[in-house]
Amino acid sequence: MQIIADLHTHTNVTDHAFSTLTEMVHAAKERGMAAIAITNHGPTNPDGPHEWHFSNLDLIPRQIEGVTVIRGIEFDITAPAGGINVMSNKSLKPIEFALASFHECLFPPADKTIHTQALEAILYNPYVNAFGHLGNANFPFDHEYIISRCNEHGKIVEINNASLNIRKGSRDNCADIARLCKKYEVPIAVDSDSHICYRVGHVEGALEMLEEVGFPEELVINSSVERLDAYFRGRGLRIFS
């Protein structure tokens, strides 16, 4: 399976990331990718950029070095009710692709019931496209309850390659989540969550795991330009000229 777009990446406006926008896009080009989404943390995350970063996202050219650039964000799921970073409408308007993820700094790990309730709230959130790195073992939740409802609410699920390496216990969780996405025909995105240009597009571990569970390529929205284009066109956006 080929991944033609990395939909979860961070530039150095996120404090614990290291590469510029130009470096990230160039890396995507070198990997032969058609697109990259820039998804820095929300402004209330301790290392996120100021809200003005997001209000100015539409200054980024649609294409740089022949790579389509998608203007995005990784929202923090906030405790305990499952909110997201508070932002003005002006700052939300340019965002084209939004993940929502648990991060310990804004959602101290609790229990399975609380995590499930928070994710259920995200299902209803109109600003969120995708659940980010759901496999994090620090945030157990009712996998089947959430995954079985994703299509009803237009949410996709990310399989996060970085989780397999840095979040202990994530691989088994990601495999179970992938099996449920296959069962309920929930679309997924396979992403690097790269914080440096040298990791852009590297999703080998995630693809290996998906092959093991027999995951169908047609449910991977970033496995072809046509699928990714159809995904965004279904949301009223044209990202490919």
CATH overall fold name: TIM Barrel
The total beta strand count reads 8
Q: Output the CATH homologous superfamily.
A: Metal-dependent hydrolases
CATH architecture: Alpha-Beta Barrel
Euclidean distance between termini CA atoms: 24 Å
Helix fraction? 25-40%
Shape: globular
CATH class identity: Alpha Beta
Q: Give the count of structural domains.
A: 1
Estimate the strand proportion. Answer: 5-15%
Tally of separate helices: 9
Give the radius of gyration.
16 Å
Order of helices and strands: EHEHEEHEHEHEHHEHH
Q: Outline the low-pLDDT stretches.
A: none
What structural category arises from helix and sheet content?
Answer: alpha/beta
Which whole number gives the mean pLDDT?
97
